[in-house]
Design a protein that fits this description.
Layout: H1 2-22, H2 37-89, E1 93-94, H3 107-118, E2 125-130, H4 137-158, E3 165-171, H5 182-188, E4 190-195
Parallel strand pairs: 2-3
Antiparallel strand pairs: 1-4, 2-4
Helix pairs in contact: 3-4
Length: 196
């Protein structure tokens, strides 16, 4: 019995210790700072203003880019239109019977053609020499070639790059006018410009 009282005392003492050490003071609750609704609203308003400014700047830059692209397209369209008009303005050079030199009355047309061609460094010019139906095929091919070479020399003397000019002779194979008289023949003795 003596031991049981002592045992009870030890258990009671141990239980008391457990109660005092295991169940210490309750932690204090975390104190959260008070929310300032005015500062949150101000921050959101500032962010909204910044987003609006960024959106407006993006819209302005896009409008500028669109306007620049539209201006470039319009300039390219006008350039292509002017180039097509210039190509259509090129004149045919006509020749006398059995001759390959440029006639005096054709020199103004040849000068005009050279001036137009000189404006366009990107053009390739093929000079097509032609003859009327009289004479053999061989003779007319040679005559057409001499005529094309005569116009080529005129153009290169004017300052056009010879690398941009080629010649071909069709002789009497491609008449511009049908007929067996001077009216038709005079239209067939020519050099035409094939511009690319």
């Amino acid at each position: 019995m003596k031991y049981s009282v002592i045992g009870l005392a030890v258990v009671a003492l141990a239980g008391g210790l457990l109660l005092t050490t295991g169940c210490g003071p309750k932690p204090k609750p975390e104190v959260k700072p008070a929310v300032n609704l005015d500062s949150i609203a101000a921050a959101e308003a500032a962010k909204h203003r910044a987003d609006s400014i960024a959106a407006a700047e993006a819209a302005r830059l896009k409008a500028e880019a669109d306007a620049k692209r539209a201006a470039e397209l319009e300039a390219a369209r006008l350039k292509a239109e002017a180039e097509a008009k210039d190509k259509a303005s090129i004149k045919i050079i006509y020749f006398d019977l059995d001759k390959a030199n440029i006639r005096k009355d054709m020199s103004a047309d040849a000068t005009f053609d050279a001036g137009v061609i000189k404006k366009y460094d990107n053009w390739k010019v093929q000079l097509e020499g032609h003859a009327d139906e009289r004479g053999s095929n061989e003779y007319n091919l040679a005559l057409g070639d001499r005529r094309a070479q005569s116009v080529k020399k005129f153009l290169t003397d004017y300052g056009i790059n010879t690398d941009h000019i080629s010649t071909i002779s069709y002789g009497k194979e491609r008449p511009a006018a049908q007929g067996h008289n001077e009216a038709a023949w005079s239209k067939n003795r020519r050099v035409e410009f094939n511009l690319r």
